[in-house]
Amino acid sequence: MSKIEVKKIIKAIETSDGAGVKLKRSIGTPEADYIDPFLMLDEFGSENKEDYLAGFPPHPHRGIETVTYMLHGEFEHEDSTGSKGKMEPGDVQWMKTGRGIIHSEMPAMTGGKLLGFQLWINMPAKFKKNKPEYLYIKGKELGVHKDDEKLVKIIAGKYEKAEGPQTNHNVEPIYFHIVLNEKKEFKCKIPEGHNSFIYLLRGELQIGEKEHNKTSDSNLIILEKGNRLTVKANKKTEFLFIAGKPIGEPIARGGPFVMNTKAEILEAIQDYNNGTFAKY
Ligand code: FE2
Questions:
Q1: Strand, helix or coil at 144?
Q2: 6 CA distance to ligand 1 centroid (A)?
Q3: Distance 57 CA to ligand 1 centre (A)
Q4: Of 131, 102, 126, 134, nearest to 272 (Cα)?
Q5: How remote is the CA of residue 90 from the centroid of ligand 1, in Å?
Q6: How far is the CA of 40 from the centre of ligand 1 (A)?
Q7: Phi, psi of 267 (to 5 degrees)
Q8: In angstroms, rounded to a whole number, what is the distance separating the alpha carbons of residues 92 and 137?
Q9: Interval between CA 186 and ligand 1 midpoint (Å)
Q10: What is the dihedral of CA 124, 103, 43, 257, to 10 degrees?
């Protein structure tokens, strides 16, 4: 049994993606390129519609899982498997792209506040050529633990008696959205070999037993390995806690494609160009 401590605190970088949607990227940056199995974490959103209305027009993915979690706003989704859906606040879209999916994510709103997260999880080599799988999870289907000290929404994994809606995942992921009241503690156990991190939305946390730098909003807090997490809220704090089993394979990135070798990236580009990419 070992206590989890802070490894590194990183401020998210402001950037844009899709057709110019403003976002804050924390994983998939020079300072945190890959936290195996996590390839990317984006916080997208703004109160200004000009920052998001152009959306994410059709684009491909191969070899990864994309997990989108909406907190404010509405997005419409359409993909090459024929799936179509509208994401509302609290909803999750978990896409295991496997050999290839082409999709679009466009705002279904004309103004107001948008806030959401997109996490990319790598897929083990043996699943990268699988048929795509698309999980659409309504907010009310998430596991929920609530007591006087905290609210824990469970997108994946288990906390106390509450469990995420899907248990059939590749990397034993844990994905919690937590609101912790002032001076209260959140404790949980995770498998010893998992990599984990906290993404702070608002507030301030004391993590583990060692002293660490003060955290601020939109900070990625990469954690050391261990199996017991203890965090204390210096004031009312909202954060994501995410963990997963490392895959331990080489990675080759090519924008929306993540494979094991450069040759497989070239193959993905070829498949996309000759129209065989999304044939299942
Ligand atoms: Fe996408």
A1: strand
A2: 30
A3: 9
A4: 102
A5: 19
A6: 12
A7: -60, -40
A8: 5
A9: 33
A10: 40
The span from the CA of 126 to the CA of 121, in Å, is: 15
Please tell me the predicted confidence (pLDDT) of residue 102.
95
CA of 59 to the centre of ligand 1 (A): 6
pLDDT digits (tens, 9 = 90+) for 159-202: 999 999 988 899 999 999 999 999 999 999 999 999 999 999 99
In angstroms, what is the span from residue 104 Cα to ligand 1's centroid?
Answer: 7
Q: Is the pLDDT of residue 5 over 80?
A: yes
Give the start-end residues of each E strand in 157-227.
158-159, 162-163, 174-180, 185-189, 195-207, 219-223
d(CA 25, ligand 1 centre) in Å = 15
Q: How many angstroms is it from 48 CA to the middle of ligand 1?
A: 22
* Residue 37 CB-half CA count within 13 A: 26
**CA–centroid distance, residue 179 to ligand 1 (Å):** 28
The predicted-structure confidence for 57-89, as pLDDT tens digits, reads as follows 999 999 999 999 999 999 999 999 888 999 999
The full set of domains in the chain, from first to last, is: 6-274 (2.60.120.10)
Ligand 1 centre distance from Cα of residue 60 (Å): 7
In this prediction, residue 261 has a pLDDT band, given cuts at 50, 70 and 90, of very high
Q: What is the pTM of this model?
A: 0.96
